[in-house]
Amino acid sequence: MTQVVLDTNIVLDLLMFQNPQVQGLRQALDQQQLRWLATPPMREELARVLAYPKIAPVLARLGHSLASLLAQWDALVSVVEVAPRCAVRCRDPDDQMFIDLAVAHRAQLLSKDALVLRLAKRLLPLGVGVSPTRG
User: pLDDT (tens digit, 9 = 90+) per residue, 5-14?
Assistant: First the structure.
């Protein structure tokens, strides 16, 4: 089974915005064709982002709650231990945990973050494909 690591922006597209660009990803997760790997700090980051003053009203307008989105996250992810730091460093320290986890598990890393996407060539030899969506 293909393993994936999703950064927070992809998670927001998937769970909150239900972005059509990630509809195939959602179907693959629902059909257990993919194993979404995440760590407790990734859940904490999602909760923090969902509580941002600019995000919370959007969450409510879309008919979601913090608890409902975290419950969806809990239902879809395979929680694993935090990965050790890998040799490839991201200029944004908030993104490093996603890179480290993808490298540790040789997983596909889905991210829309430009700094992460720039690392794609360096991560490929480590068994990590990086893309903004699952294609």
Answer: 999 999 999 9
C-alpha to C-alpha distances, 93 to 36, 52, 108, 120, nearest whole angstrom:
21, 19, 19, 17
C-alpha–C-alpha distance, residues 36 and 109, integer Å: 10
Neighbour-count burial for 88-106, b at 16+ CB within 10 Å, e otherwise:
bebeeeebbbbbbbbbbbe
pTM of the shown model: 0.95
**What is the set of domains in the chain, with CATH numbers?**
2-131 (3.40.50.1010)
Q: How far is CA 62 from the centre of its chain?
A: 20
Return the H-helix or E-strand segment holding 29. Answer: helix 23-30
Could you tell me which of 26, 133, 132, 122 has the C-alpha nearest to residue 75? 26
Return the SS3 of 77: strand
CA distance 82 to 91: 19
| Cβ proximity of 34 and 3 under 8 Å | yes
